[in-house]
Amino acid sequence: MEWLYSLxxxxxxxxxxxxxxxxxxxxxxxxxxxxxxxxxxxxxxxFIGILAGHFGLAINPYVLNYAESFGLVLFVYALGLQVGPGxxxxxxxxxxxxxxxxxxxxLTGTALTIIGSYATQVSLPDMVGLLCGATTNTPALGAAxxxxxxxxxxxNTPALACAVAYPLGVLGVIxxxxxxxxxxxxxxDLELKKKxxxxxxxxAAFQVHNPAIFNKSIQEIAILSRCKFVISxxxxxxxxxxxxxxxxxxxxxxxxxxxxxxxxxxxxxxxxEHETTDWNNEDIDWNAIDSQLVSRRIVITxxxxxxxxxxxxxxxxxxxxxxxxxxxxxxxxLATPQLTLQLGDRLTxxxxxxxxxxxxxxxxxxxxxLEEPNLVAVFIGLILGLAVGAIPLAIPGISTxxxxxxxxxxxxxxxxxxxxxxxxxxxxxxxxxxxxxxxALGLSMFLACLGLRTGGTFFETVFxxxxxxxxxxxxxxxxxxxxxxxxxxxxVMKIDFGSVAGMICGSMANPMALNFANETIPGDNPxxxxxxxxxxxxxxxVILAQVILMFxx
Length: 553
Hints:
Radius of gyration: 27 Å
Shape: elongated
Oligomer: single chain
Largest sheet: 5 strands, antiparallel
Mean pLDDT: 78
Number of strands: 11
Strand content: 5-15%
């Protein structure tokens, strides 16, 4: 049994890998178990790490520090890349209201944390740990711990406080949703309402009967109209064609137009007559409608096209084809000339078979190349993130310069690269599965190390007299902000209950509660609202965890 002792107990690089892998494997396995429809997911790794530390498992302190730091950096950078493309666009007209409500949830919890520290004499680092557990936000915990190290405070109790508050943090958000529903929501409030999807392409057919556009080119007509549209096909005298921007429109022409549904009334006035045929049915066989033309989806895989505008390629005029729609990360976009292309975009191309084959050569369409991860961009992003995190920032009122640290720097750089990288012709594309793998690997390493570090003193801390106080404070930090802002959003601002529930889950970074909301509330409003507020809420909590300690400790 000596080999087993050296594998699990005798500290070495091999032993560290085995222990951390064992903790992650058990935690991830148990995290898939659902109890009353709720599972802790990857967060279970944290609690298995605590148990391992409690029963005496330990690894070399230097290896522990390295694995914990590298896991945190990898996770927050990949998270930044994931939320980056939708980070700034989430502040559109509808998203702005939800984000403001989410900010109110975050700021309310932050204010209660500071007040609770002064009122109960619980140290501010411990209160920040309770806040991180109450909001199920381990990246914020990592940021707080890095800030404490920068300030010369070596304190493990925030992680203990986070672990104490975490279980009720998950349950508290679900309880808040249930309370709001029981007290305020009527059955008719849960009925699905048709929601206008402003950016989703809509297909409509028109016949040209407006004399004002007779004998004008498509380009001239587009200038006359303020609506964005793409003419996919044109029928004239029984023949179908792909019209270029110079094509002259004549009386009686039949046009198949890709636009937004809200633009249909205006385009009806522009062209003359709107046909009643539904062209948005997913079962339509486009290739059977006109045997001369072929519809094919082509993937952009040529790096030099990354960041270019669709109109600059002049594909319509050069090859006689038309691009009607662009699919990006599960979102369908209207293929306007101003659309900035990204590697991995899937373009719906319509035209003759020979022309489409030529366009395919221009765009790439070698899907296999996208499956190879662009690790150069990942490591360069990590370097830039750590460099930004190490920059000392002088803030009035704080004697020592402030640094964004291992959590703040990489997440900011990840968001910026994910948002603006394609415009600067940076190849930042990673498949969804690759990004998920990076995040899961980094977070698992971080939580396993965090649990090991705190496990030795966890239970004696929890079962002290103040342990019950910690549990109560953590539950309060979860339930009070969510109830106040949730009731305000639903009752006063008249936002639908599904969006309110999703906003609450996103502002608390709680995917477990989102699963509950999706299973009990009809429609996809909870998921849409969650995705809208999650990026900025996550970013704000990571930054505020550091700011609280810098200003008030």
